[in-house]
Amino acid sequence: MSIVTVSNLTVAYGSHRVINNLNFNINQGDFLVVIGENGVGKTTLVRSLLGFIKSQSGDITIDPQTKIGYVPQFRNIDQEYPLSIRDFIALNVRHSYLPWLKKSERQRIDQVIDATNLQDIADRPLGLASGGEKQRAYLAQALLPAPGLLILDESTASLDNEMKYELLDLVTHFQQQGLSVMFITHDWGLAQHYGTRFLRMTEDGYLTGPINELPQPEKEVK
Amino acid sequence: MLALSFMRHAFIASTFIAIVSGFVGVFVVARNLSFLTHTLSEIGFAGGAFAVFIGWPVLNGMILFTMLSSILVGQMSIKESRREAVTSAVSALFIGLGILFLSLSSANASSATNILFGSVVGINLTEVWQLIYLSIIVILVIFAVYRQLKFTSFDAIGARVSGINATLYSVIFLIILALSVSVAAQIVGSLLIFILLTLPAASAKYFTHGVAKMIGLAILFSLLGTWLGLFLGYITNWPVSFFIAVIEVAIYCCALMKQKLSGAE
User: Is residue B71 pLDDT above 80, yes or no?
Assistant: First the structure.
């Protein structure tokens, strides 16, 4: 079942076309890898899906039952950041005006903390967590409202190799339970290891298909 | 000491001010708005001087000026790159205006001192009630938008990508802040607003890692400073603001020391 269908999408800033006639879809349970150099419109595409940018023409159809969780590329969390990992995750509990958390909300937070293997460090300050732990906390926060589609925007870029695989193994675990994933990356190795389908974006056009059809990079990209 | 009505008023007023400061201060610190708070207090000084000039209660002038300018200043200083320049320009303008109003009103030096350094011991029952109403309004508004305010303050990027209207909550918070600055200025004066609106919250964040606990601790630190300050002011006849400043700075130093020690482990 297709949860996102993008047809003939064109997005422009002023007269500069960033996305030009893009077509692709995301099915339930897909691990779609979006791969391309800087400046080909990957982030613009994400912002369009989230509804932050109006497209010039074309359609984005998102299944009305599907919520989108998004882990942005940058977060301003420094060493002095005061909240614990648990409280940081809990920031995304909304849809109520109660200042305190209801029991069901606390249970949901615990569930997500367990699922992202953060239970042992949940009460430690997020500012003191390692890069990998921080990414898991961002992931947990995005997963809290139980989204159907998770968008990861270069979430592994700042991590060392071992941590990259650890984080994406975790994401794959959720994907196997039915979550659809859209993973934006530069990293061909990760794309081939985890993706089920790909969307290759270049200045000249777009290509999409099952991951075994992903063409080799023209030049080595780290 | 509490047999004297002016001391009773002072204690009641400062209790409410401390509670409001604890609540608002945690968000001021999380949103990095300490300097904006300082600018608002200088705008409050001009408002207070304006009130003296036209014969109003000082608090009303402060509320008028801070409310009118908070959103403007907040929007102007949203870009971090020009925040300092905007803050300096606005501060200079409003301190100048304050001096002008005071000189036009031929007010004596003591009214200037009261606006700048606070005059909690001189507060009357009507003013106490006014402070209580305003404090309750501020706290109710915070409760009404608590979840969204928390998200936008402690994780602005995450809140934005979750579709929260960050500008709306920023405006609501600036209005709350303007009210709180005017309220807190009654006890510590507009020059020392930092003491109650930022220091207790800045200290609290080193002791605990939850928003609600931070608010509780910030209220506790504010109460400790104001109550002890009033008591010490009463027995020594020295200015209450001085004692509050010393106590809050001491708490902050302890917090920094604790942080340093735990970092060294």
Answer: no
Q: How many CB atoms lie within 10 A of CB B200?
A: 31
- Spatial contact of B189 and B117, defined as CB atoms under 8 Å apart: yes
Specify whether the CB–CB gap between A48 and A22 falls below 8 A: no
Angle at A140 between CA A137 and CA A141, to 5 degrees: 90
**Minimal Cβ distance to B209: which of A74, A83, A92:** A83
Q: Which of B144, B151, B206 sits opposite A91 (nearest CB)?
A: B151
For the segment B20-61, what is each residue's pLDDT rounded down to a tens digit? Answer: 999 999 999 999 888 888 888 889 999 999 998 898 888 899
Rg of chain B, C-alpha, whole Å: 18
Look at B161 and A92 and tell me if their CB atoms are within 8 Å: no
CA distance B89 to chain A (A): 28
Maximum separation of any 2 CA atoms in chain B, in Å: 59
| Rounded Cα distance, A179 and B248, in Å | 50
Half-sphere exposure of A119 (CA within 13 A, CB side): 7
- Under DSSP, is residue A206 helix (H, G, I), strand (E, B) or coil? strand
State the DSSP code for A217: P
B263 touches chain A (CB under 8 A): no
Taking an 8 Å cut-off on Cβ atoms, the answer to whether A75 and B150 are in contact is no
Q: What is the mean pLDDT of residues A84-109?
A: 91
User: Alpha-carbon distance B37 to B44, whole Å?
Assistant: 10
User: How does residue A222 score in pLDDT terms, banded at 50, 70 and 90?
Assistant: very low
Degrees, nearest 5: CA angle B178-B241-B172: 10
Test mutation, A76, A81, A94, chain B, max B CBs within 10 A: A94
Rounded to 10 degrees, the C-alpha dihedral B47/B53/B59/B61 comes to: -40
Query: Could you say which of A92, A99, A100 has the minimum Cβ distance to residue B151?
Result: A92
| β pairing state of A57-62 and A2-13 | antiparallel
> What are the φ and ψ backbone dihedral angles of A7, each rounded to 5 degrees?
-130, 130
Listed in sequence order, the residues at least 6 apart from A68 whose beta carbon sits closer than 8 Å to its beta carbon are A49, A50, A62, A147, A148, A149, A150, A151
The amino acid at residue B150 is K
Torsion, Cα B242 B246 B251 B252, to 10 degrees, reads 100
- Which residues in A87-125 are b (16+ Cβ under 10 Å) and which e? bbbbbbbbeeeebebeeebeebbeebbebbebeebbeeb
What ipTM is given for this predicted complex?
0.88
